[in-house]
Specification:
mainly alpha
């Protein structure tokens, strides 16, 4: 390569490494573990859920169920109109399965899920 090409490449690399404005030069705010979970689709962390009272948890679950039922209703209306996309079809199937799982009495639900937290005091 000739000197002119090398000088041009060096200049372009130098421009790419320098910030374009003062905002670009600011370091990013440190990311806290809880903030990452809270930012993801507006969901709070598990610790936030554990802090709620039983009445608050029941209210949140009612809100979630109402939101899910409204979304199912909207998707079914789109399906009837014939304007449902593939992604929405998958979402409708998923939501219907979730709604069916939630309607079962607690005794008929399968076990599993997350294991209970280990108690640090007992040494387990």
């Amino acid at each position: 390569m000739n000197k002119r090409t090398l000088a041009l490449l060096a200049a372009l690399i130098g421009l790419g490494l320098t910030p374009l404005s003062a905002e670009d030069a600011k370091p990013a705010a440190p990311n806290t573990p809880g903030a990452e979970k809270a930012d993801k689709k507006g969901r709070g962390s598990r610790e936030d859920w554990d802090k709620l009272t039983e009445a608050e948890k029941a209210e949140k679950l009612k809100e979630r169920k109402a939101k899910m039922e409204a979304r199912i209703k909207d998707l079914k209306a789109k399906k009837a109109a014939g304007t449902l996309t593939d992604k929405e079809t998958e979402q409708l199937e998923r939501l219907e399965k979730q709604a069916a799982r939630g309607d079962r009495p607690p005794g008929q639900r399968p076990g599993g899920g997350k294991r209970p937290k280990k108690d640090d005091a007992s040494g387990k």
